[in-house]
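Newbie here. two chains, one complex. Structure please?
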Amino acid sequence: GEDVEQSLFLSVREGDSSVINCTYTDSSSTYLYWYKQEPGAGLQLLTYIFSNMDMKQDQRLTVLLNKKDKHLSLRIADTQTGDSAIYFCAERGAAGRRALTFGSGTRLQVQP
Amino acid sequence: DAGVIQSPRHEVTEMGQEVTLRCKLISGHNSLFWYRQTMMRGLELLIYFNNNVPIDDSGMPEDRFSAKMPNASFSTLKIQPSEPRDSAVYFCASSQTGERETQYFGPGTRLLVL
């Protein structure tokens, strides 16, 4: 079945850039998503990218997609303490399959 | 606009009791997804509905779990009888069918079965 993998933890200093990586196995993925989860809260949609795109930028967020290697990354520029959270990568497979497959989440810790 | 509404936010119950979780979709959306989040298994899809019809319930753990969508904007997830291994955070997500479909999550119900 489909699988999505992420590293568990990332620590950066305030003001630095953060890069969170994700790999997936489903070659028919249509859309890939990044969600943010703060403690005790639900999942907040940050951004998404269509599988025929290489890059998408949205303010401090840059998503890079390497479809050949099935690798997705989320770069957060000028990381702030408020960015500390768990970041989930998710993929939606071929048209008709609407459920999302999530990674295990990467906990981002921003040091002041 | 209100987002996805879930209730209760927290539930503590004893093994064997019935638990009912509730979810209200975002106005105008036609699809609802129930997910469960645990430390061991992460986020897993339990079931999803499209236009009130259950489409994929392959993630429902066993017969103790049932989900309904009595109208276009509201769903319940019922566990009867509950067991300690059902302790988790249960999320509901709402979306509108389409190519650029995105799922919006509710705040979750944190369930503890003693």
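Moderator note: DSSP finds no helices and eleven strands in chain B. Chain B touches chain A at residues 4, 31, 33, 42-43, 45, 48, 50, 55-56, 91, 93, 95, 97, 99-108, 110 (CB under 8 Å). Thread marked as resolved.
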